């Protein structure tokens, strides 16, 4: 789960990481009021969307005129921002962060995430702040500094000093070394206590006043840990999430929307992955990952159909069920009942295997529904790909 920059900065402040004075606003009137209270030589108005690259896309506006703030807010609210992270459709701006301008002397990059290779929380830092870190990693990998933290020991001062000296802070601005080490300790605490998956500050700046300030903030949480934190749950912004994924969550379905045109309904995450692979192997692309779970009922199957059919890219549906805990004739009944409730407008291929598979296939074949039944995974994949045509 992702949160907005202003929410990330609230968490930073809570954990002792310095941020500019600022507030979330949702109207030009509120912007004008907060601008008066903020009373700063430079105002920065920032679009809040769950995507980076806002600066280059016109989503970060800087002004010295207090009177201009409301007008900028009016222009940004309701605007659709297209950045390199939003995709071509862009994202509509519903809220802004209005904060004080900082005197930037130097922009750095700093983040913490779990390194998949070692399984340890790891700081990533670079002198190339404000840039896209992926690009830095690709073109100048020597400029990426990594420091892994042994979770059994926790963050230690020497971890922070390793990063500080590798960045060359002693040459850049020695006054910030101690606050920097302290900041890393605070970010580590935030990362661990809130079950974050990523905490990123880009840019972390050294100001002309020789202080450190987190000028941007991104925090993603591990979805499996969110239920432990009421404050984090409240930060969820459904405007920023795919409506089909929200509906799926409400129905206890594990659904991830993808870009292909074959809707998949599968039980078990492993089989769902295999199904996506086999669709690709047969020459097309899956429109989604959907795991209806071990105990799929008529209602879950119906909810699954509804969600799949709401995606305009779906040109066919592939149901692939292995009856282990759940029996195949039950699934067949579920499909038949669900098909009565939800009008299926695209070709449907069903592959059933496992307990009572023969009975299930027979029920489907005699149901009068327009569908094709297959025994074998490869045969089924080829069938649905043939019926839907090649992926665009
Ligand atoms: P994004 O990463 O989405 O482009 P950032 O928050 O990183 O958005 O802002 C982009 C750039 O705008 C920063 O690199 C910085 O140069 C400038 N900027 C952002 N916030 C401030 C601020 N409060 N004061 C001064 N400059 C800022
Ligand atoms: Mg940024």
UniProtKB/TrEMBL annotation:
Keyword Chloroplast: no
Key words of the record: ATP-binding, Ligase, Magnesium, Metal-binding, Nucleotide-binding, Tricarboxylic acid cycle
Chain positions recorded as substrate binding sites: 267, 324-326
A GO biological-process term: succinyl-CoA metabolic process
Residue ranges of every copy of the ATP-grasp domain listed in the record: 9-230
Pathway(s) the chain acts in: Carbohydrate metabolism; tricarboxylic acid cycle; succinate from succinyl-CoA (ligase route): step 1/1
Cleaved signal peptide residues: none
Family annotation (Gene3D superfamilies): ATP-grasp fold, A domain (3.30.1490.20), ATP-grasp fold, B domain (3.30.470.20), Succinyl-CoA synthetase domains (3.40.50.261)
Pfam families noted in UniProt: ATP-grasp_2, Ligase_CoA
Reactions that this protein is recorded to catalyse: succinate + ATP + CoA = succinyl-CoA + ADP + phosphate; GTP + succinate + CoA = succinyl-CoA + GDP + phosphate
Cofactor: how bound: Binds 1 Mg(2+) ion per subunit.
Binding residues annotated for ATP, in chain numbering: 46, 53-55, 99, 102, 107
Record-level GO cellular component terms: cytosol; succinate-CoA ligase complex
Domain of life: Bacteria
EC number(s) from the headed UniProt entry: 6.2.1.5
Entry binding sites for Mg(2+): 202, 216
Cofactor(s) listed: Mg(2+)
TM helices/strands, residue ranges: none
Function: Succinyl-CoA synthetase functions in the citric acid cycle (TCA), coupling the hydrolysis of succinyl-CoA to the synthesis of either ATP or GTP and thus represents the only step of substrate-level phosphorylation in the TCA. The beta subunit provides nucleotide specificity of the enzyme and binds the substrate succinate, while the binding sites for coenzyme A and phosphate are found in the alpha subunit.
Subunit note: Heterotetramer of two alpha and two beta subunits.
NCBIfam families: PRK00696.1 (NF001913), sucCoAbeta (TIGR01016)
The protein's name: Succinate--CoA ligase [ADP-forming] subunit beta
Source organism (scientific name): Nitrospira defluvii
Originating gene: sucC
């Amino acid at each position: 789960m992702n949160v907005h920059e202003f929410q990330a900065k609230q968490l930073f402040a809570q954990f002792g990481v310095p941020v500019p004075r600022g507030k979330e606003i949702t109207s030009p009137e509120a912007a004008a009021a907060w601008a008066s209270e903020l009373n700063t030589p430079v105002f920065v108005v920032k679009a809040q969307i769950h995507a980076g690259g806002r600066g280059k896309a016109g989503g970060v506006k800087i002004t010295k005129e207090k009177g201009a703030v409301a007008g900028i807010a009016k222009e940004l609210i309701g605007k659709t921002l297209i950045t390199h992270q939003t995709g071509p459709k862009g994202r509509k701006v519903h809220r802004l962060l209005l904060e004080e301008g900082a005197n930037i002397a130097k922009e750095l990059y700093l983040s913490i995430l779990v390194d998949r290779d070692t399984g340890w929380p790891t700081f990533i830092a670079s002198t190339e702040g404000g840039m896209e870190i992926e690009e830095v990693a690709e073109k100048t990998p020597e400029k990426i500094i990594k420091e892994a933290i042994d979770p059994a020991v926790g963050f230690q001062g020497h971890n922070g000093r390793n990063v500080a000296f590798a960045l060359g802070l002693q040459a850049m601005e020695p006054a910030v070394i101690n606050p920097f080490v302290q900041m890393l300790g605070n970010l580590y605490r935030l990362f661990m206590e809130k079950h974050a998956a990523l905490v990123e500050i880009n840019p972390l700046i050294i100001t002309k006043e020789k202080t450190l300030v987190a000028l941007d903030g991104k925090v993603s949480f591990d979805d499996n840990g969110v239920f432990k934190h009421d404050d984090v749950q409240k930060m969820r912004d459904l405007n920023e999430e795919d409506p089909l994924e929200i509906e799926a969550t409400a129905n206890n379905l594990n659904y991830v929307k993808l870009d292909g045109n074959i809707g998949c309904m599968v039980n078990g995450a492993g089989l769902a992955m295999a199904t996506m692979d086999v669709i690709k192997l047969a020459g097309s692309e899956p429109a989604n990952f959907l795991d209806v779970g071990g105990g799929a009922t008529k209602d879950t199957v119906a909810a699954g159909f509804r969600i799949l059919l709401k995606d305009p890219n779906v040109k066919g549906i592939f149901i692939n069920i292995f009856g282990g805990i759940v029996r195949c004739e039950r699934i067949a009944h579920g499909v038949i009942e669900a098909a009565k409730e939800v009008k299926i407008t695209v070709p449907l291929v069903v592959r059933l295997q496992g307990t009572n598979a023969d009975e299930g296939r027979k029920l489907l074949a005699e149901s009068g529904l327009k569908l094709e039944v297959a025994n074998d995974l490869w045969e089924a994949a080829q069938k649905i790909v043939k019926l839907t045509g090649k992926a665009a």
